[in-house]
């Protein structure tokens, strides 16, 4: 039995107590969750960092009249009300209206994400209009400050079929209210991504400054126009899980010589103040190069790279050559870079040039022309065009491959993240997965698969009892998730597959990945040239480079 | 690389239709609304000249970059939405100051966009396509149709204000009537007229600049006031 390297294959015996894992409907077993009906702030239904709120006299703590808070909360999350609403209600299209908490359509959403200021001012809501939600957001603020006044922080509330996750980031409060099977940790990851998105447009420093000056500032004024970006981010979790779940970027499958040549080309084409160049297609990475003078000591965080990949996918960048400030929250949450973004040759191939000089647009435009010429010389445009054109969903323009390529019948889909990458490019976690094909072409089917992956991921990474291998027979598919020192793998198989058959499929898949890894992953990302002799004019630059320092 | 000979900048509040105007002109279509991020650069060949056009984001978030986009501009298109008087007010309050970095002989065009939204309002006064759900539900005393909110005279008055602000003599610049436009990016009404009129006006400016030598030198020496104070990045 060989299933990849020196790791034991998932022989039935090894997985004895794990096979046919049935997921509990709630995560109470993993500790932390408490089942109870509506979350009552006066009761101990809160998962908290330290003390128990219920020990305190409620009158002392609640900034809201006691009679008000629970009644609002009950009305909102009445389980009976969510029952008669369709689970997989189409999630698109209704973003603009509604928002009245009594609105059936609004309540039927599987997951809500809210951003509000400390003062309780609504900033963002995934669904509905924030104006209609000020009461709801008031309740959230009340919950948070209620626990806060006891010197504690509220993290999550588990209420019947809902999870409420709270995340405080500076003057911003982010809340997820979810009926999806996502764990609280996964929801928190999503909230962190939402926060990073906000920081990337405004910087942490300017958000802090704004609220320090005026506590009840309406941040929507500054975020206006960015809501769609947040919507797209949250949608991607349901439609195409992977990037956020695995904390990795997806690469365009490409022959290694061409990828290497493109990497060399990017390193050759420079401009004053250029810090990072990225080639991408449809949110997937072709290659990237960091300039040593600016990002010498700092590694580009994969979350920042993913943020950039999502960002350049925005429709605003479809035409012309764009020049805009952007902040990389992990690299430096308080400063801006200036980004040149353009589609090359009217192709879906996107070039991003990130620099520190707000006036360098024309230098970057010149650099882009060098890249473009270089790519023509390499004949790369055609190859990239081919990579981009294979897709079942041509509209997405996303370079992809079919699961058929693996040649393992019964395999429907998978997510594979290598963990055995050489140390010097641990900075670039990657994953690969094929196009979602039938039966996962419909929205609700994709959502179901995404839910299953999230469940498996939560089990593998459970903080109390992590698992290495899960074989899960679901209603309409069979799944196998497996984490070793070399990879993390999630497979979705036909429901009729036997356990032995599943192992065979996985073995085949691992062999295929091994064979194709040079094409699927950036095995040897461009090395940055030798570090600069003097550490001058380097990493602190972004913090004071802005003529744009916020309002 | 083609070096741009002159620069035109589109300014205005968000959602007035700057991007749509430009797309209508450049690509002859009226695409779905997208919210511009930062600024987008286009190059237009006009006669033997390359004219660069900056389509800027109206969002307050990107306000700090505005003066950079305007640096050395030969013409600025100040855009408002004829249905929203506030968008004209914003031009004066927020955007006019950004043009301090433009050329001293910079041309200004005032453009009221979205006239298509008025047209059936003025034609037939009765029941209107619900311009916003609020109107339909409201049923207030006034008729549901949208009366023209910003009159061409308002734009002309604003144009004169600009001249005053720039301390320009009316005799030295194109007449207000010539520089105030009403357009519809949706139908294409007046869009070509706007851009082509402006291009034709910018060409002599380019020629004059060329005669005067490298524009950078001229720019720096001709700025007498410290620009920083106006750039407004820190408000």
Task: Give an overview of the whole structure.
The complex is a heterodimer of chains A (551) and B (235). Chain A is an alpha+beta fold. Chain A has helices at 58-61, 68-77, 79-83, 104-107, 134-148, 184-202, 204-213, 220-223, 227-239, 243-246, 256-268, 292-295, 302-312, 361-378, 380-389, 443-460, 499-520; strands at 46-48, 111-117, 122-125, 154-159, 162-169, 172-178, 249-250, 274-281, 284-290, 321-326, 337-343, 349-355, 411-418, 430-431, 469-473, 478-483, 487-493. In chain A, the strands form four sheets. Chain A has a six-stranded antiparallel sheet, with helices on both faces. A five-stranded antiparallel sheet of chain A has the order 9-8-12-11-10. A four-stranded antiparallel sheet of chain A has the order 13-17-16-15, with helices on both faces. The radius of gyration of chain A is 24 Å and the shape is globular. The model of chain A is unreliable at 1-96, 391-397 and 529-551 (pLDDT under 50). Chain B has one domain: P-loop containing nucleotide triphosphate hydrolases (Rossmann fold, 3-Layer(aba) Sandwich), CATH 3.40.50.300. Classes of the chains: A alpha+beta (551), B alpha/beta (235). The interface between A and B is medium-sized, with 35 and 30 residues. Strand 10 of chain A pairs antiparallel with strand 2 of chain B. Chain A: This is Vacuolar fusion protein MON1 homolog. Chain A: InterPro entries: FUZ/MON1/HPS1_longin_1, FUZ/MON1/HPS1_longin_2, FUZ/MON1/HPS1_longin_3, Mon1.
